[in-house]
Design goal:
Number of helices: 17
Order of helices and strands: HHHHHHHHHHHHHHHHH
Shape: globular
Strand content: under 5%
Radius of gyration: 21 Å
Number of domains: 1
Number of strands: 0
Helix content: over 70%
Largest sheet: none
């Protein structure tokens, strides 16, 4: 019963998260430049939603505690199949699709002067692995998640071998990485993202240790989340400027705590919504919705409807959100149906 309850709120939280992801990816950069409300919504959600998915990844990692008993090679091979195979496969598919579209005369005019112009494969792969994919920037999450999971698994294994307190060691590594990432800078670098986002993953392992925490949280937790949301809005609107390196580090720690408090309140909401069937379904399929919704369903649709055809922002975003949710779910259903038919024939 406890395992089922845990899975329920985690799936609901993922469902909330994927809705927010599709929403912000429907808001194109030129929309944010033209409309202050679009910019506020985008910057507010982006400030916590990626961290939210790393927290949930940490929850599921710790829940599947038995997998840590596997040999390192076996564990990493499973993670590579689950994360890297879709990552590289989809990155190459996107490159092939947009390279052809940028070359094919009827569609080349649509892409002229946009972020989807032609690019050499080597440069595309270099940017995809080191920073952001030029055609599918959202793929960075999957790449960084693999390395964070591998690093936490290695730390877990060493703690077990040497008899060290696992959670304390993980927190020490995560906080040191967060400080190092702040000092190094270069926020779009994959290496810096590993340093700065490991702390969210480790925070998620704490939720797995205390699985009923979101359901037991009371009014004080909800009030703290509301106050944190107010601070986040204030920061997004007016920013925070520091003049010394230690001031920057101190602010990053405070900013991290604000977002973690807000996420705890968001998980409390997810626990209340864990019996909402459509939301938990989205949560269970969140990986594939995340992978497939960009750039074809959101970025490209927004480019055509808003940037090229001049549709109003609400109409363009609504179309992108609808396609970003329905088409990936349909693709997943069709793929599983075809797989079942093939297995049935064998």
């Amino acid at each position: 019963m406890e395992k089922k309850a845990r899975a329920g709120w985690v799936d609901a939280a993922r469902g909330i998260g994927i809705l927010l992801i599709v929403l912000i990816h429907s808001i194109r950069p030129d929309m944010r430049e033209a409309n202050a409300a679009c910019r506020l919504v985008y910057e507010l959600i982006i400030s916590f939603v990626n961290g939210m998915f790393f927290v949930l990844a940490g929850v599921t990692y710790r829940m599947a505690g038995g997998r840590r008993e596997e040999a390192p090679g076996r564990f990493l091979m499973k993670k590579a199949r689950a994360l890297l195979l879709p990552f590289f496969g989809y990155a190459l598919l996107v490159y092939a699709a947009f390279s052809f579209a940028a070359w094919f005369p009827p569609t080349a005019r649509v892409f002229q002067g946009t972020e989807y112009g032609r690019m050499p494969l080597g440069e595309y792969l270099r940017l995809t692995l080191r920073e952001d994919s030029p055609y599918a920037a959202h793929l960075w999450f999957i790449w960084v998640l693999f390395w964070i999971t591998a690093a936490v698994y290695a730390a877990d294994s060493l703690c077990k071998r040497w008899g060290l307190p696992r959670q304390r060691v993980l927190w020490a590594i995560a906080l040191a990485g967060c400080v190092a990432g702040t000092l190094v800078g270069g926020g779009n670098s994959a290496a810096v993202r590993v340093l700065t986002h490991t702390v969210y993953f480790v925070y998620g392992t704490e939720f797995a240790v205390r699985p009923a925490l979101p359901e037991r949280s009371g009014m004080s937790s909800a009030l703290a989340a509301v106050l944190s949301a107010g601070v986040m809005v204030r920061v997004v609107l007016y920013g925070v400027h520091t003049v010394t390196w230690y001031g920057a580090v101190l602010w990053q720690v405070v900013w991290l705590l604000v977002r973690l408090v807000f996420l705890r309140g968001l998980f409390q909401l997810a626990a209340r919504l864990q019996n909402t069937a459509w939301l938990t379904y989205l949560g269970r399929e969140s990986f594939w919705v995340y992978l497939l919704h960009q750039p074809f369903c959101c970025g490209f649709v927004g480019l055509v409807l808003y940037s090229k055809l001049g549709l109003p922002i609400p109409a363009a975003c609504a179309a992108a959100i609808a396609l970003g949710l329905t088409l990936p779910c349909c693709a997943v259903w069709l793929g599983r149906w075809a797989s079942q038919r093939l297995w049935a024939q064998d």
